[in-house]
Structures are given as structure tokens and as C-alpha cells.
Amino acid sequence: MRKESLMSLFNVQVEPNVLHNSLEPQSIIDSFLNHPPEDFNVKIIESDGQEFYGFLADLDLFLTVDKPLKDFAERFLKWGPLKKLFTPNVLFVGTAVSEYSLFPKKTNINQFISDLLSVQKTLKKQFVIFKDLPFKSPLLNKADNDFSSQLTDSLKKNDFIIIEGQLIAYKTINFSSFEEYLNNFSKNRKFNFKKKRKAMQNYKTQILDTGDEFFTNNVVNILYDLYLNVHNKSDIQFEILSLGFFKNIFQNTFDGKVFVYSEQNKIIGFCLYYVVDKALMDKYHGYLYPDAHKHFLYFNHFFDNLEFCIKNNLNTCIMGGANAETKAYLGCEFTQSYHAVYIKNPLLRNVLKQFKGFFESDKIK
Question: Using one digit for the tens of pLDDT, what is the confidence trace for 13-23?
């Protein structure tokens, strides 16, 4: 579906140049609106003449807790009534494909919060969650950070609870070659990275534009299976993006880039990314196991990102959330994201305030 018809369908007036916190191109947001994950329902929230992205989805309240507690809880959640209690259907503000929640530049914060809580009441939802709010993010400009600070203050005054979310990894490109990048590490780690880099000699790397004729239905099906391989290995599994979402991006949009890795004409991995302003944004990747492990493909796709940034005079490589420990090993920097949670029931709200630390996934050390 073309962008014009999408906007007509949802009556959305927001555009990328009037959105706070926007890092991705509009095409990936449109693909999410047109092809939401299974059991996700897009919900456009109207307030003061503006329209805001949101969605409805079930949330496992133990999604981000430590594994021992999660394993303990899952023993009891197999019972139907308890599972329903701890997997509520939640009204989210934001999208599942943008690093941060997106807001029109003309947002009237207090009016929006009031209207949002009215929507929550109408929909009879116990939870409202602002997904992925920035705070003094080095990836955003001052206006975006000032807006987010004002929004967070207003949310606190309206009994929203602020919870730390995932760390967002990025790497400042302050070096002019891969060798110079390696000089930031110890002798042992430098040797380790060079050893992994040599493994790339055994496979082929292509850099393709989205919309290229290479992305036939058969190829997209292969790439989607590789995406699912990575998703299924993840400790935190919130959404499963649909085949339709990726098919639309690979075949019908023209602003993305794709690293495609293959060995003997067999695709063993891919990385979808975007170049926005002076930054490379790494969005999604997929791997064929055990081939990807054999070639240290995760490490080499990161190294490919760095070399692409150097070659194209980009100043930042944004690696997103998840795998914070590995990304720190690679020399990434981090910025903390936050969620703002409102619970209609005041008793449950007070319980979350006391135990919110159990639900916080990542923290900057």
C-alpha cells in the first residue's frame, strides 16, 4: 500500500519532519502500520488536532525479569486465569519498530495525557505504557531531549511510573580505519577481532538497496526464516514482525540498505539498515545457524557497519537494543531508554512502585 492510502486509512497527519524522537525513515513506520505483528492492533490516538502512534498488544509482565524469577513465575502462569492476569492487553504509545516513541512537534503534553487516559477508560485497559522514551539521548537533538524531559515530568505528575528499559547501543566513528578502531583495545582483544575478521574471507558479501529485483518472494522467505532464527534465540521476545512487514520493506521501499552474506550460493545472513543524516542505523538481522557461528557473522556484520560508516563519512553507528554485553565488548557506547507505565488500579500501581526494579532489563554500569 502506498503512503498516501495508508495515511487515508488511519487519518494520520503526522510526517517525519514534524516528529519528535525520529531516527528511522517514515517507510519503516508505515510498514509497521500496514503490517503489524500478529495479535497487535494499531491504535491511532487523537488529541488537540494531532494524531499519535499507538497499538494494543498482550504483555507478559515477566518479560524482562531475571531468568530465575521468570522460570519460577512460568510454573504458575500455565494456569489459565493466572496467565490472563499476568498477560494483560495493554495500550502502548509508540511503535514496535522505532527506537523511541514518536510525537508530533506541536504536541500539547497535558492535553495528550488527559485524552490518552480517556481512551484507556473507553477501551477498559488496566495498563497504559509509553514505550521507549529517551532521556538526554546523544542520538537526538536538544529540542527532542527537552520535549522528552517535559513529557516525563508531566507523566510523573499523572501517576505514571518510570521504568528503565533497554540500553540502546551506538558507536561514535572517531577513527578513520578499521586498524585505528582496533587500537582502542587490548592486545588480546585486538588479536581476537582480527581472527574473527579473517573468517569473512570464506563467504560473499553484497550490499543491496531495498526494492532491488534481488528480493524475490523466495529470497524474502529465506531472509524471514533467518530473522526468526535470531528472534527465537532472544531472551526477550515481545513482538514477532510479520513476513508481510519484511516483504513490504524489501520489495516496495527504496531507502534501506541490506548486507547479504552467502556461502556457495546459500544465504547465511543479512542485515537491514538505514542511513539517516550522518548515522547508520542497524535495524534487523538474521542468521543461518551454525554457519553464522562458524564465520563469526555477528561480529563481522558489526565490523562491516564500521567500515561502511568510514567509507561514507558517517559519524555514528546505531546498533539498537539487546545483547548489551556483547556490544560493550565491541566498544559500543550506550544510552538508556525508559518506559512510563500507568496502572488504573491504585493498589497494583503501588505494588509496581515498590518492585519496579525487578522489571528493569538493562542499566548503564
Answer: 344 457 999 99
